[in-house]
Amino acid sequence: MNFSVTDNDFFKETSLLSKEEKKGTVIHKSPSNIALIKYWGKHGVQLPNNPSLSFTLTNAFTETKLHYQTKAENESKSEISLEFWFENKKNEKFEQKIHKFLESLLPTQPFLGFVHLKIYSQNSFPHSAGIASSASSMATLALCLCDLEKQLLNTLENKEEFYQKASYLARLGSGSAARSVYSNIPITTWGQTNAIENTSDLYASPYSLPIHDIFQNYQDTILIVSAEEKSVSSRAGHALMETNPFAQTRYELAHSNLQKLITALEKGDTKTFIEVVENEAFVLHALMMCSSPPFILMETGTLTIIKKIQKFRKDNNIPICFTLDAGANVHVLYPNKYKNECLDFIERKLKPFCFEGKYLKDQLPVNSNQ
Ligand code: DP6
C-alpha cells in the first residue's frame, strides 16, 4: 500500500477543496496497550529494531474529536493551522508537539494544509497516574487524520487499508502507538518477523495466530507505584540502545522470545508465557541499567511488588505474572478465571506499595472484528 496521498487524489482534492467550503467533525477512541515483547531500539524514521507484541487494554483509552473547516482561497495551504485542547483546556505544550508532527506529515499528506483544525482530546485514566498516554493519543489522532482524509478525498474506503494507514501514521508519532489503533483486537504485533505472516516494520497488525481460551479476557491490573514523569523519555531511551553493548543480543532475544510466546499463546502454556513476559520486563530494565548513562527506572516498591507476585504464584499455584514498561509501575497479568483470588491478593498485599494506594483494573477486549 502507498501511504502517501497520490498525485491523482491530490489534484482532485485541490480542485475540490478550493471550490466549496467543507467542514465536519470526526471522533475516535483508542486504547492504551502493554507490550509483552518490548520495542526498545529503533532506526531510520521510527522503524523498530525488533518485532514487538502487545495486549490491548479496554479501560485505559484516549478519545479525540477533530473539527475541520477548509481554508479560504487566499489562505496558505502549505501551513498547518491547529488549535489543541486537552481535557477541556487549551494546551500549548501538546499543541506545539502535534503541530510539529502534522508539519512532518505535510509533504506526504498535503490535504492537511487545506484545513483549519481544532482538536479536543481526553484520557479515561488520570493524567497523574504515570501511565504513558502517547500510544493511545497518537493512535486516536492518526485514526482521526485517516477519517479526515476519507471525508475530504473519498479515499481509504477499504477497512484494512484505513487501519493500516492509521497504524502507519500513529507509528510516526510514537512507535508503540502503531499497536493502539485496533480497539477490539486483544493482541497486536508490530515489526517484521518470519514467525507471523504479513508483518511489517511500517505498521502494526492484529495478531493472526491461534490464541488459547485461557488468554481470552486476560486481566491487567496496573499498579501505580510512581505518578511522576519518567526520568528518561522513550526517545532518549531508544537512542541509548545505539551504544548499548548488549543491543545485538537483545534483538536476537526478542525474536526467540516472540517465537516462544506464539507457541505458549496457542497451547495455553501459562508457564512459558510467564517466563517470556517476565524476562522481557527484566531485560528492558537491565538494558537501561547498563546504558551509558545508566537509568534505574524501578522504585523500591516495584521490586517489593515483583517479589510478592512471584511468591503468591508459587504458594497458590496461580499463573499470575507481571510486566513493566519504561517506568516504575507494574502491570499484573492473570487469567480471568483467577480474577477474584488475584484482586483480593492485590488489594490486601500489593495496594500498600502503590502510590496513594492507587491501581487501575483493566483487561483485554473480548475478540470481535474491528
Ligand atoms: C518500553 O513508543 O514510547 O513501552 O517511538 O520514541 O515514541 P517512541 O517510543 P515509545 O516506546 C515504548 C517503549 C516501551 C515498550 C513498548 O511499548 O513496546
List strands and helices in order, with pairings.
Elements: H1 7-19, E1 23-37, E2 42-43, E3 47-48, E4 52-70, E5 81-86, E6 89-90, H2 92-105, E7 115-123, H3 134-153, H4 159-173, E8 187-190, E9 204-206, E10 219-223, H5 234-240, H6 247-267, H7 270-289, H8 300-316, E11 321-324, E12 330-334, H9 339-350, E13 359-363
Parallel strand pairs: 5-7
Antiparallel strand pairs: 1-4, 2-3, 4-7, 4-8, 5-6, 8-9, 10-12, 10-13, 11-12
Helix pairs in contact: 3-4, 6-7
List keywords for this structure.
Ribosomal Protein S5, domain 2; alpha+beta; 370 residues; four-stranded antiparallel beta sheet; 2 domains; 13 strands; seven-stranded mixed beta sheet; binds ligand DP6; single chain; Alpha-Beta Plaits; 9 helices
The helix-strand sequence is: HEEEEEEHEHHEEEHHHHEEHE
Number of helices: 9
Could you give the distance between the termini? Answer: 19 Å
Fraction in beta strands: 15-25%
Shape call? globular
Summarize the amount of helix as a percent range.
25-40%
Can you tell me the CATH class of the largest domain? Alpha Beta
* Poorly predicted parts: none
CATH fold group of the largest domain: Ribosomal Protein S5, domain 2
The unique ligands bound to this protein are: ligand DP6
CATH architecture call of the largest domain: 2-Layer Sandwich
Q: How many domain modules?
A: 2
Annotation, overall tally of beta strands: 13
The Cα radius of gyration reads 21 Å
| Class from secondary-structure proportions | alpha+beta
Kindly report the average pLDDT value: 94
Could you give a short account of the major beta sheet?
7 strands, mixed
